[in-house]
Amino acid sequence: MWRYLAGGVAIIALIAAGFMVFSGKARPGPILPPQPLAQVAGTVTSDTLPDAAPEATEKTREQKRFDRYDKDRDAKITRDEYLTQRRKAYARLDVDGDGKLSFDEWAVKATTKFVDADRDKSGTMTAPEFATTAVKRKGPSRVNCPPTQAVAEES
Q1: What angle, 0 to 180 degrees and rounded to 10, lies between the N-to-C axes of helices 61-69 and 79-93?
Q2: What single-letter DSSP state applies at residue 55?
Q3: Model confidence pLDDT, tens digit, residues 29-77
Q4: pLDDT digits (tens, 9 = 90+) for 81-111
Q5: Dihedral (Cα; 25, 31, 35, 37), 10-degree rounding
Q6: Domain positions in the chain
Q7: Pair 129, 117: CB distance under 8 Å
Q8: Residue 59 to residue 65: CA distance in whole angstroms
Q9: How confident is the model over 104-150, as pLDDT tens digits?
Q10: Residue 89 and residue 106: Cα distance in Å, rounded?
Q11: CB distance 93 to 103 below 8 Å
């Protein structure tokens, strides 16, 4: 019987605690009082905002990939343009040049990557060794800038 009584008291206590938590003034007030707009220098109003956001001029990754395939720059990729890239990749994998890929030829890149990463030649990779196998993405393309005057004077 005392279990039921203790359970009832616990439920009433939880309800009371919940009521106190949710009805209390736990919400923080503003840190700083709002300033009148006349006092704020250089405010941005809806009148000073542009109608549309400027468009990005930098090409997306997919646009760059499209341009690599589109050799004649006609904004269309023909079957031959597409397959040229695939043939080059296939030829790199077909080591013996028989026109067929065996599993060993296909897996040679992964096997080579594992052997190169396993610095201590233990047959296993530690976490730092495994980190060296991550795909390295190319950074942003560099713009060919003219040489500076100091470099030009040395030449």
Answers
A1: 90
A2: P
A3: 666 666 655 545 555 555 666 677 766 567 788 888 888 888 888 988 8
A4: 888 877 888 888 888 888 888 888 878 877 8
A5: -90
A6: 59-93, 97-133
A7: yes
A8: 10
A9: 887 887 788 888 888 888 888 888 888 887 777 766 655 565 665 55
A10: 11
A11: no
pTM of the model: 0.33
| Separation of alpha carbons 44 and 54, rounded Å | 17
b/e sequence 45-68, b meaning 16+ C-beta within 10 Å: eeeeeeeeeeeeeeeeeeeeeeee
Instruction: Find out whether 117 and 133 touch, Cβ atoms under 8 Å.
Output: yes
CA atoms within 13 A on the CB side of 25: 2
Q: ∠31-34-37 over CA atoms, to 5°?
A: 150
- The single residue listed with the structure tokens 């004077």 is 153
User: What letter would DSSP give residue 94?
Assistant: -
Tokens of residue 33, six digits: 């009082």
Residue 37 CA, chain-centre distance (Å), reads 40
